[in-house]
Amino acid sequence: MKIGQLIKESRERKNMTQQQLADQFHVTRQT
């Protein structure tokens, strides 16, 4: 399993959008 897939699954379990995750890390969504 790739890191991107792990991040996506973890984010979806927490019902977070990509934007919410990016905001939490103080980066843009495209990063």
Automatic annotation (TrEMBL):
<dbReference type="Pfam" id="PF01381">
    <property type="entry name" value="HTH_3"/>
</dbReference>
<dbReference type="InterPro" id="IPR010982">
    <property type="entry name" value="Lambda_DNA-bd_dom_sf"/>
</dbReference>
<protein>
    <recommendedName>
        <fullName>HTH cro/C1-type domain-containing protein</fullName>
    </recommendedName>
</protein>
<feature type="compositionally biased region" description="Polar residues">
    <location>
        <begin position="16"/>
        <end position="31"/>
    </location>
</feature>
<feature type="region of interest" description="Disordered">
    <location>
        <begin position="1"/>
        <end position="31"/>
    </location>
</feature>
<dbReference type="InterPro" id="IPR001387">
    <property type="entry name" value="Cro/C1-type_HTH"/>
</dbReference>
<feature type="domain" description="HTH cro/C1-type">
    <location>
        <begin position="7"/>
        <end position="31"/>
    </location>
</feature>
<dbReference type="GO" id="GO:0003677">
    <property type="term" value="F:DNA binding"/>
</dbReference>
